[in-house]
Amino acid sequence: MTEQANTGAGATEEQTPQFSLQRIYVRDLSFEAPKSPEIFRKEWTPAVEMDLNTRQKPLDGDFHEIVLTLSVTVKNGDEVAFIAEVQQAGIFLIKGLDAASMSHTLGAFCPNILFPYARETLDSLVVRGSFPALMLAPVNFDALYAQELQRLQQAAPENATH
């Protein structure tokens, strides 16, 4: 009786979706302040431009690397005060998901986990460059993912007619 219960539980575990974070790391990091030290002597009226990208790469087995690239360019008037970029990466074990759930996990859920680390890394980097902290607002990766799906769906009929 015990063997049957264990066998049944083992079959259920194989079908149960699994997700675990294996590692978070900085893949690349850069900072440039092209107008230093002159920029520090001017009135500080910053304009922040942020660019956000993600990419994914399957690794061995059910492991995936997700890389979130966060680039920030800050101008003071017409001059670039600094450019900072981080590629925050993570290795995730993901298995047992259907295609739609896997796509959402890789495209929204994983980047959402990485963003606070990328934001903190950039903030620390900028402060080390002697600039005020960035304090970037949170990003809604679910909304970005939904917008990208909608864009792809709208582009699909156009590609089919050409």
From TrEMBL:
Record-given protein name: Protein-export protein SecB
Keywords: Chaperone, Cytoplasm, Protein transport, Translocation, Transport
Any GO CC annotation of this UniProt entry: cytoplasm
Subunit structure: Homotetramer, a dimer of dimers. One homotetramer interacts with 1 SecA dimer.
Molecular-function GO terms, alphabetical: unfolded protein binding
Pfam family of the protein (one): SecB
Top-level taxon in the UniProt lineage: Bacteria
UniProt subcellular location: Cytoplasm
Native species: Pseudomonas segetis
Protein family according to the UniProt entry: Belongs to the SecB family.
